[in-house]
Amino acid sequence: MKKFVVPALAAVAMLAACSQNAQNETSEAANAIAADTAATTENATADVDAATDRALNSAERSVDNAGVAIDRAADKTGAALDNAADDAAAAGDRAADATGRALENTGKRIRD
């Protein structure tokens, strides 16, 4: 117990010996540290907010770009389907014409 009391009394004596000026300087240093900590925290928060905004804006642009790409692909697919339908209709017309000619030719041969 005596081993603990002696250092504690020495610490109390040292604190009591501190002048008012030393106590004021210590208090000012503590205030400066607190202000620096607050400023650092505020800057870190601003940095995180800015990074978050940039990330969200980038994600939004990516989604918008994907939407544009999907729209373009849908337009191209629609155009390709239109062309295929036109080609199929033209082929059907040619087949009908060829069938009609073949029937006409067959009819002429039968008559002759």
TrEMBL record:
Keywords: Signal
Renumbered residue ranges of the record's region Disordered: 85-112
Signal peptide positions (record): 1-22
Amino acid composition bias (Low complexity), ranges on this chain: 85-103
Protein name: Lipoprotein
Organism name: Sphingomonas cynarae
